[in-house]
Design a protein that fits this description.
Cyclophilin
Length: 203
């Protein structure tokens, strides 16, 4: 009887194994995690090149908005128009001709994503805006120090970061110490033009 019971038990095990194998084959495949585009951009300035890795996962709408300006060559021959040594360097909205700053026409504002974006630490790039958290368009700034006061939910909703400097932080440090003054009705404007020659996707 023992051999017969052994055979029956072995048969049950085989049937169970086949059933498990069948279940595995009929299981619905798990959805793949959404892929995010990893983009590095090169910001060529009159003081040197700054390479930035954009954070499409943390700030997808902001990165898409920024790249739309990059691909349109909107930033070519604009300037860093606001520089504060202990805070940030800001650009992306003005061109300059014969010492006069002219604000460029922009696209529609982008929704604030600061609640999910990385904190405003040294070397991160973030969107500039007005007191309205959803008012950012083309202007950006690079944090030259850790600016915790700009993180969500502070400062009326926080400032969205969308990337970080991966090469050329010494260029940022060079720009942050340029002489500034009052010009065109604005303060903290570099006395000598700090030009953004171009911003392009890295090849």
């Amino acid at each position: 009887m023992k051999p017969l019971l052994t055979l029956i038990f072995a048969g049950l095990l085989a049937t169970f194994a086949l059933a498990q194998e069948k279940d595995k084959k009929t299981e619905a495949p798990k959805p793949a995690a959404p892929k995010t585009e990893e983009v590095t951009i090169i910001m060529a300035t009159s003081e040197g090149d700054i390479h930035l890795q954009l954070d499409s996962a943390g700030s997808p709408l902001t990165v898409k908005n920024f790249l739309s300006y990059v691909d349109d060559k909107f930033y070519d021959n604009t300037v860093f128009h606001r520089v504060i040594e202990t805070f940030m360097i800001q650009g992306g909205g003005f061109s300059e001709k014969e010492g006069k700053l002219t604000q460029k026409t922009t696209k529609a504002p982008v929704k604030n994503e600061s609640s999910k974006s990385a904190p405003n630490t040294r070397g991160t790039i973030a969107m500039a805006r007005t007191s309205d958290p959803d008012s950012a368009t083309s202007q950006f700034f690079i944090n030259v120090t850790d600016n915790a006061g700009l993180n969500y939910p502070l400062n009326g909703g926080g400032y969205t970061t969308f990337g970080k400097v991966v090469k050329g932080l010494e260029v940022v440090d060079k720009i942050k110490v340029v002489e500034t003054g009052f010009s065109n009705g604005m303060g903290d404007v570099p006395v000598k033009t700090v030009l953004i020659k171009s911003i392009k996707r890295a090849k």
